[in-house]
Amino acid sequence: ENGLYLIRANQSGLSAIYDPKGRLAAGPLPEGLRGGLVTDVPASFSGWTLYQRYGLFVSALLVLLLIGLFGWGLKGFQVPNSS
């Protein structure tokens, strides 16, 4: 979500390096094996992601939109009064 490399170092699992797209850049080391991983990581900043620019605003807006659409859809299913 932030467009950065992820380095996962774990003593009881798989250690690996992932690129900003989630692809495996180095590793994983086999479980239980001591070792190190080396890969090239670009030093340049590739720009802001949608989440970095707008944060939770987009998520909150979508939730409100879904609630509104759900409420509007339920309006047609009201039970008539039998008085």
Overview of this structure, please?
- This protein is an alpha+beta fold.
- It has one domain (6-77).
- It has two helices and three strands, in the order E-E-E-H-H.
- The protein has helices spanning 50-54, 56-74, and strands spanning 6-8, 16-18, 24-26.
- The protein has a three-stranded antiparallel beta sheet, with no helix packed on it.
SSE topology:
Elements: E1 6-8, E2 16-18, E3 24-26, H1 50-54, H2 56-74
Antiparallel strand pairs: 1-2, 2-3
Which strand order does the major sheet show? 1-2-3
* Shape type: elongated
Q: Describe the main β-sheet briefly.
A: 3 strands, antiparallel
Taken together, the total number of domains comes to 1
Low-confidence stretches: none
Work out the strand percent. 5-15%
Average pLDDT, rounded to a whole number, is 79
Number of strands: 3
Q: End-to-end span in angstroms?
A: 55 Å
- Overall structural class, as computed from helix and strand content, comes to alpha+beta
Radius of gyration: 23 Å
Tally of helical segments: 2
Series of secondary-structure elements, N-terminal to C-terminal: EEEHH
Provide the helix percentage.
Answer: 25-40%
Descriptors:
2 helices; 11% strand; 83 residues
